[in-house]
Amino acid sequence: MGKKVALVLAGCGVYDGSEIHESSAVLVHLSREGAQAEVYAPDVDQMHVVDHTKGQPTQEKRNVLVESARIARGNIKDLAKLDVKGLDALIIPGGFGVAKNLSTWATQGKNCIISKEVEDVLKAFHAAKKPIGLCCISPVLAAKIFPGCELTVGHDTECEKWPYAKTAEAMKELGCKHVNKHVTEIHVDMKNKLVTTSAFMCNAPIHEIYDGIGKMVKEVVRLA
């Protein structure tokens, strides 16, 4: 039997949910590795809804689980029902939903609060010594919960290629070790079984982002 991997989503769309290309890449690479994805999302309202043609918030209200179901093609469960015992690993892709719907990082940075459901799931996999894969902005969740862990969100010096490099500095302030890596590379914290890659934290061609996520998935499945 292939490994069972929980994929936790945060909505549907880069500006207010899960990054669709990252989520899709995880699903494709899990399939290639012979692993079975079980998709989950919290049954909560989004922080807000963003019109992706304008990048501006609207007055609309949307639910994180309902929106995430779009990516999962309807095959999704409420995060509250996740049982770590039947699962081998956890992956959380990026997108602003991680910083808006799974935590308050978007508005509070390193002083953020992580949703209790999300924190409990991360701590359960960590306590069971089961691997956790995080890409793009989602490594901030581990930075907040697991002091002293090693992570990458790409590079720590801001430039056109790395527009979100200040995230690495905030993670260091939380007591983490940030390791600079190119978009096609991963970092593995063997002690904490954390596998991270930068994905869309980098202004890179989409195939490079896809390849980096592939390496993350392969390593998560190998460690499971």
Topology summary:
Layout lengths: L3 E5 L11 H13 L3 E6 L7 E3 L4 E3 L5 H8 L4 E3 L10 E4 L3 H5 L4 H4 L7 H12 L4 E4 L3 H7 L4 E2 L14 H8 L3 E2 L8 E3 L4 E4 L8 H18 L1
Parallel strand pairs: 1-2, 1-6, 2-5, 6-7, 7-11, 8-9
Antiparallel strand pairs: 3-4, 10-11
Helix pairs in contact: 1-8
Can you give a write-up of this model?
The protein is an alpha/beta fold and 224 residues long. The two termini are 13 Å apart. It has a seven-stranded mixed sheet with strand order 5-2-1-6-7-11-10, sandwiched between helices. It has a two-stranded antiparallel sheet with strand order 3-4. Helices cover 33% and strands 17% of the residues. The model has no long low-confidence stretch (mean pLDDT 98). Helix 1 crosses helix 8. The longest helix is centred in the last third of the chain and has 18 residues, at 206-223. The chain is built from eight helices and eleven strands. The chain has a single domain (4-223), classed as Class I glutamine amidotransferase (GATase) domain (Rossmann fold, 3-Layer(aba) Sandwich). This is DJ-1/PfpI domain-containing protein.
